[in-house]
């Protein structure tokens, strides 16, 4: 099979690939290996009991979603046969909670990013023109949004609410489409979002439920959790469970609907399209008006298998799927930006 193209080469042939971006954990790993599942699992061990840890060992995995899928299957099977499943259900909740807690724990501070990493963040949000979707819980996209809002309009559909004096989903006038903003959507929630009395609220250093304005954002988030406000996030093991939680939350369903309303092209980087855990993402893309998908492959040693699986996901649709070498994605973005400066 021929060598994978770079993302830069795809864009030279078709600039619509800069319309929309969907990224997952592979994006975050570029900014810190601590986000790798193997490292998250090692950090999470202190939050788990022996049986939880043994489960990962027996499954020969460090993938939290896979472990949660297995536990969910066990719970449902035990229900059918009237077998006690309390211990299994407790393990499910411990592992789910450990994941979000560990992401917060290993999260780098903004000053820990290198200059190159900082530029990668800004370049990503400067180049993509319409929508950026993420399934990550971390703050990298939030930081990027803050970094580029001086040079282009950005929006996340949160605004200032006069009554509560908080930043709330759906409040304020929002960013006018006349300004051609890039819009950010957290498909599975994020560390800095929480629910209170039916509202989805964004934690910022200046506006938060603990009333502190002197702390870095990560510390503010930690103290917010410790005060009893828990983050809005989805880490369920199966795509059906994820979709159920999405459709029962007004912010997450808004983001999911935005994906289904997307058109032109979609670039996918660092996001698996596993049918067991990501079918809801695949289905949303298939229901959209997206005409082309550019899918990044990092594990090039398995590119034939990955290409076969991804093409199979969109079989029966008119969506054209192209592939690129994800290992050089950020280098491609730098080159594209440089070329645009001299056009």
UniProtKB/TrEMBL annotation:
> Origin, by domain of life?
Bacteria
Record InterPro entries: DUF4917
Q: What is this protein called?
A: DUF4917 family protein
């Amino acid at each position: 099979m021929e060598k994978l193209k770079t993302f830069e080469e795809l864009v030279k042939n078709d600039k619509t690939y800069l319309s929309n971006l969907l990224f997952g954990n592979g994006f975050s790993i570029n900014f810190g290996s601590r986000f790798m599942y193997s490292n998250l699992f090692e950090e999470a061990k202190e939050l788990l009991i022996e049986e939880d840890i043994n489960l990962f060992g027996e499954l020969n995995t460090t993938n939290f979603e896979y472990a949660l899928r297995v536990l969910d299957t066990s719970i449902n099977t035990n229900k059918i046969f009237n077998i006690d499943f309390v211990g299994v259900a407790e393990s499910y909740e411990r592992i789910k909670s450990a994941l979000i807690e560990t992401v917060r724990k290993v999260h780098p501070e903004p000053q820990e990013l290198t200059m190159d990493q900082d530029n990668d963040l800004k370049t990503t949000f400067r180049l993509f023109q319409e929508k950026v979707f993420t399934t990550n819980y971390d703050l990298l996209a939030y930081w990027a949004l803050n970094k580029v809002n001086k040079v282009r309009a950005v929006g996340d559909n949160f605004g200032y609410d006069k009554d509560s004096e908080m930043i709330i989903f759906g409040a304020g006038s929002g960013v006018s489409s006349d300004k051609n903003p890039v819009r950010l959507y957290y498909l599975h929630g994020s560390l800095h979002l929480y629910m209170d009395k039916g509202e989805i609220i964004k934690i910022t250093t200046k506006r938060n439920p603990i009333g502190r304005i002197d702390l870095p954002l990560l510390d503010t988030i930690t103290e917010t959790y410790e005060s009893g406000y828990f983050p809005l996030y989805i880490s369920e093991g199966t795509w059906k469970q994820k979709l159920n939680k999405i459709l029962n939350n007004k912010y997450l369903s808004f983001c999911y609907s935005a994906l289904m309303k997307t058109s032109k092209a979609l670039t996918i980087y660092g996001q698996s399209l596993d049918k067991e855990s990501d079918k809801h993402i695949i289905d949303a893309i298939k229901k959209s008006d997206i005409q082309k998908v550019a899918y990044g492959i990092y594990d090039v040693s398995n590119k034939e298998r990955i290409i076969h699986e991804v093409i199979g996901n969109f079989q029966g649709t008119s969506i054209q799927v192209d592939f690129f070498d994800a290992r050089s994605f950020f280098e491609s973005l730098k080159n594209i930006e440089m070329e645009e400066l001299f056009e």
